[in-house]
Amino acid sequence: MSGTESIKIVPVILSGGTGSRLWPVSRASFPKQLWPLLSENSMLQDTALRAIGSIFTDPIIICNNDHRFLIAEQLREIGIEKARIVLEPLGRNSAPAIAAASLLIAEENPNHILWVMAADAVVEETERLIQFVEEAANLAQQGKILTFGIQPTSPETGYGYIEKGNKLQEAEHAFFVQAFIEKPDYQRASQMLEAGQYLWNSGMFVFSAQTMLQEMQKYTPELLNLVQVAVQKRQTDLYFERFQLEDFVKIPDISIDYAIAEKTDVMLVIAADLTWSDIGSWNGLWAISKKDSVGNVAIGNVFLENTRNSYIRSEEMVAAVNGLDDIVVVVTKDAVLVTDRRKSQDVKKIVDKLSLAKQKEAFLHTRCYRPWGFYETLASGHRFQVKQLVVNEGAQLSLQKHYHRSEHWVVVSGVAEVTRGDEVLLVKENESVYLPVGTLHRLTNPGRIPLVVIEIQSGSYLNEDDIIRVEDNYNRLD
User: Which parts of 104-173 are beta strand (E)?
Assistant: First the structure.
């Protein structure tokens, strides 16, 4: 990469989506980018690992406030300790997120180059991708904004497209942008594939902070001013940078394509011949997954007979499929999806119906992650609920109380240090402790292995908002 050595490429990972087309695995409480759908790593982890090397700084992750501890833990698992994790109190699409990242980087050096990418895309040829990024970064130093177009291999209706214009003579893979095209129908997508001048819109961008801010000042100054206020008034919360709701709610909800890409005259597209997918549907996941001899992807406790070209996934229970082709069956602990594989883009419509019906399964998993570990609902009924708590080594729940429920804790494995009022108790395996309504209490794992506790709740109101936190290591007193 040419230019002065002080110019670095800053990876900016946008992790704000819910991936509802991959329901019931992907939900708002635990979206697709945090799942290991194709490798041992989550999609977020694989995305972050692509940007490791001497030309890159530590990444910036812009994410939903509710996912902050999960994301921080996943980054630590792959050795990324110094990421800047920036929290949005609510989603406002890609343009505000990119404006915020540009302003944050400009505080350090407006000439630094940003590489913006979604947390939920798959790219198989990482080394070749980096070559494209370096080519784009050289052009970004000259005041250009680069987007990445992927050479299409099929008439895909789930992606937007970019029409290539004339080739930029001084670059190997860069073209002027003729037009951005919305997601087409199948006939139009087939025509564009045959024409050869159209690329899938990957949503990746490379630019300098200075160039992006100049273009935003020109084309969307109101948005930039509002984001600037949010950036200036941000607060540090542990190792997170947090925007305030009262500032962020005023910002328009708009994508970078509409705000800048379709308007600016400094936009170029890198035509990248990469194996890429944003895994926007179960069909998309099936297409890039390893299949058996008859085209099936089977994950989990799955048994198939006379079934072809299908995606079958089950978390725990047995899933048996007989005599069906081109289908998707996904079984989780609390939901089952069955759909025509070729119509899996429409799963979002099902999620919308579940949301309107106020079904918690639309957005919540039975397992909920917390900074100290996770809990999982095992059973519930009238005036009772049973959960499994798994507390990480050295972790500690908040000092809290409840107005409407009592709790009974049974230690399954590990050793629990329990604060109950003025007492501090050491509770070992197969021992238990009772916590009456209104009692101040706390659970700590002082040991070197995960602490597993069965929590039996009893009372007139058992929702999570009946938690009054008095002290908390993770600043969750609100």
Answer: 113-118, 122-123, 145-150, 161-167
